[in-house]
Amino acid sequence: MITFQNVSKFYQLSSGDTKIEILKDLTWELKEHQSCSIIGPSGSGKSTLLSLAAGLDVPDQGSVSLLNQKLLSMKGDQLIEFRAKNVGIVYQGHFLISSLTALENVMLPPVIQNKNHAKELALNILNEVGLSERLHHFPNQLSGGECQRVAIARALVHEPKIILADEPSGSLDFETGRKVMDLFFKLIDQKKMTAILVTHDLKLAQLTQSQFELVQGKLQKI
Question: What is the residue range of 101's domain?
Answer without folding.
Answer: 30-60+75-221
